[in-house]
Amino acid sequence: MNDFRYAFRQLRKNPLFAAVAVATLGLGIGMNAAIFSVARTALRPALPFDEADRLVRIYQIPESGAPNLSPQNPVFMLVRDNADAFDRIAGFRFTDFTLTTPDGPERVIGGVISAGWLETLGIRPALGRDFTPDEENAGRAAQVALVSQTLAQRRFGTPEAAVGSTLRLNGTPHDIVGVLPEGFTYPYDAEIWVPFRPEVSSGGSWALNIQARLAPGQTLAAATQQLRGLSDRMAGITPGLGDGMTIIARPLRETLVDEEGRTVVALLAAVGLLLLVACANLANLLLGRALARETEFAVRSSLGASKRRLIRQSLVESIVLGVAGCLAGVGLAGLGIGILGPLVPERLGTVGATASIDAVTLAFAIGLSLLTALGLGMVPALRASGTRPATAMRRGRGSAGTARARSLGRTFVVAELTVTLMLLTGVGLMVRDLQRLQGVEMGYAPEGLLLFNVALDRDPYTDAKTRTRFVEQLVGELDATPGISAASMTTMFPRHRGNTLAEIEEEGRDPSLPSVTVNHRLVTPGFLSSIGARVVQGRDLTTTDRDGAVPVAVVSASLARTLWPNEDPIGQRLRNRRASEEAPWVTVVGVANDVLQADDLEHTWYLPYAQGAAERGAGLATFVAAGQAGNPPSLAVVREALSRVDRETPAFEAITATTLNYESLTRERLGTRLGSLFGAFGLLLATLGVYGSISYAVHRRVREFGVRMALGSDRRGILSVVLADVGKLVAIGLGLGLAGSLVLARLSASVLSEIGGFDPAAFAVASFVLAATALAAGAIPAYRAAQIDPVRALRAE
Q1: Model pTM greater than 0.70?
Q2: In terms of CB atoms within 10 Å, which of 93, 547, 603, 616 comes out highest?
Q3: pLDDT per residue as tens digits for the range 440-449
Q4: Residue in 418, 422, 425, 421 with CA at minimum distance from that of residue 733
Q5: Enclosing H/E stretch for 522
Q6: How would you write 424-449 as a 3-class SS string?
């Protein structure tokens, strides 16, 4: 206890040292604890499912190398009936509902689930019950529903009041039989679930989200091997499983995280580097303090204090600093989690996974702070306590200390500069990558465009004719509305999340060759021109391209180059293999410039909505209204036009195309801002480290400089001596930092999609900023050294 009292007294006597040490440690601990919590949530989330590691999601992979595809319902039945590697398997399909309320129609996200879906996931309703076998067999005709706690609270006041109540969904009453656990909206932020039977549901094949639970004793590798065997046996026989398609299983946890965790990993590395900078800075502070107390330790040693006693006292002071730094770090961690929270993939929110300061994060912060403080305090403690009393007393306060002490201090400064340059270079690469992403040619003009969605998958829009009539009427109303220069409609606007894909084959091409995966878009005539895209060859779609006419398409320039590099694409014929083997041949009538999509898939084809309105994907229509003079029209004007066509159909998810583009890079922009913040902190710490180290060295060399000046050295000579020392440290730090930055750049190449992990400008700017800042920090104590009065310096000794 006496050691702790003495430690507190010593720190109170040196408040500036204590404040800087605690702030440095707190910053490093706080940011690391915050990113640790976010990374643990984003990369290894705690899922609310029973035995979550046994859950997988089933996909199809085409040989073309396109992204994973959700299987169609015949594939679901094939796997369900033949794959004994799973003891449970169920499907989910996204949908939305028009919910009738006293305040008018409201659009609600939901899903239709096959028998045993909740059981497969290991989820039980918090209130009420699951669907009965009879209700599952009846499908949507059973007119029952499960709801989320959020919707139950919003519509009925309490979750308990919702059970047994009725909702009107798409004009049909549904009895609520159960309320799911709090925070559960998996997947797609669903709020309502209804039953269905894939084998009897109308509408043909559709994409299905398939979840399965591995049977006891089965491994993912064994299940994948079994699925591949099914693919080989049933290819070309089972509808929806064409040639070149392979069925695979991926861990459910992995599909929730996917590639969105890459930004978190990059920031985790950045904060780790920040901690190393903080450690180097703190180590230098502790070393300087220990050397400054050599005389004190010498006196105490002469009075009988053992070496162990002196080391213990130093370590107790480090523990006190560590505890104070931990408290500051936990406070900063709470603030940091609030800032870093958006880095957690959005889909994890559907299972209630959020970052917080929980017991694991708290234990991490405490352990890291104590290990850091003790580890950094050990070397200076050994250094100071190991000096012989006579040597310390003879050296005096004005001496420069031993060569080993000076070398150790310089090593800390070099380490600080090295890691800071790596941090600054990483930030520079992120900034340059974001600049390239923002400068990518989009292929269309988003200025002045207002987008909104309308659901057309319920009565009275369940057939192609009524859907086409509604779309044409609403486009016409919008076109005639003052302030709107052009209107059109598509089933998926560029940069919107999600995608609809087609697997197309060329007429006359060897059918054994893999098909080409493209973005599948149903559009109205004039869509491309309304968004500022161009038809560069052939013609655009027109009002004559209707149901019953020759099926036509406009293809992207990249697709035309891939399929017909040396031929005229106009008049060529394609077919969507993914729809069915009997899908009609579509004639290419035009080629449009490439338009940047939300996914990485480059190829796109545009089909007339009137010829594809019967497709399941045609049930969600995105309307585009172009304002005049670059100003998007107001949502009120759009809703008024919609009410003139159908008062019962709501518009939802309205957004301007400019905002959509901005939000599409939200994660990259946030990562860059946070990385810049960490880089600024690292630069500040490095600057303070250089300044502190050089200031301390100048203070210890007062006598030496006094002697030099007494022997004839001028102020310029003293200034050059100090600046030369600073220059050496900076040069070594930059050399090592550049080498480390090159390694870091190679490791981060997968995160930096546009620059591939290396950019000369980022390296040059980071090196210049660090060198200039470090030299400026060293110039201040160098200038003070040049102003030393030799008489006063020697008299002080």
Answers
A1: no
A2: 603
A3: 777 888 899 9
A4: 418
A5: strand 516-523
A6: HHHHHHHHHHHHHHHCCCCCCCCCCE
HEC per residue, 104-137: EEEEEEEEEECCCHHHHHCCCCCEECCCCHHHHH
CA distances from 695 to 288, 687, 780 (A): 10, 12, 8
Burial of 393 from C-beta contacts in 10 A (0-12 / 13-18 / 19+): middle
Please answer whether residues 266 and 748 qualify as being in contact, where contact means their C-beta atoms are separated by less than 8 angstroms. yes
Range of 202-216, 217-231, 392-406, 524-538 with top mean pLDDT: 524-538
Contacts for 289 with CB less than 8 Å, ≥ 6 apart: 14, 17, 380
According to DSSP, residue 510 is labeled -
Q: Which two tokens stand for residue 766?
A: 């980071």
Q: Which residue has the tokens 């409609």?
A: 489
Q: Longest C-alpha distance within the chain, in Å?
A: 106
The residues, any chain, with a CB within 8 Å of residue 720's CB and separated by 6 or more, are none
Question: Residues with Cβ < 8 Å from 561, sequence gap 6 or more?
Answer: none
For 504-529, what is the mean pLDDT? 84
Token pair 């002045």: residue: 448
CA atoms of 171 and 250, how far apart (whole Å): 38
**Token pair for residue 736?**
């090592």
Distance set, CA 147 to CA 117, 128, 156, 185 (Å): 14, 10, 11, 9
Of residues 351 and 398, more confidence is placed in: 351
Strand partners, 554: 590, 606
User: How far, rounded to the nearest angstrom, does the alpha carbon of residue 470 sit from its chain's CA centroid?
Assistant: 38
* Alpha-carbon 53 to chain mean position: 22
Name the average pLDDT for the chain. Answer: 78
Among the residue ranges 276-285, 541-550, 732-741, the one predicted with the least confidence is 276-285
Q: Each residue of 729-752: b (16+ CB within 10 Å) or e?
A: bbebbbebbbebbeebbeebeebb
Cα–Cα separations (whole angstroms), residue 120 to 91, 125, 726, 739: 10, 13, 65, 51
What pLDDT does 590 receive?
A: 95
Dist. CA 780–CA 130, nearest whole Å: 73
Q: Which amino acid is at 452?
A: F
Q: Residue 478 in contact with residue 626, Cβ under 8 Å?
A: no
User: Residue 497: what residue type?
Assistant: R
What would the mean pLDDT of 483-492 be, rounded to a whole number? 92
What integer pLDDT is reported at residue 598 of this predicted model? 67
400 contacts 406 by C-beta, under 8 angstroms: yes
Predicted confidence at residue 397, as pLDDT, reads 46
Mapping DSSP to helix (H, G, I), strand (E, B) and coil, where does residue 575 land?
strand
Query: DSSP for 78-97?
Result: HHHHH-TTEEEEEEEEEEEE
Interval 363-379 mean pLDDT: 73
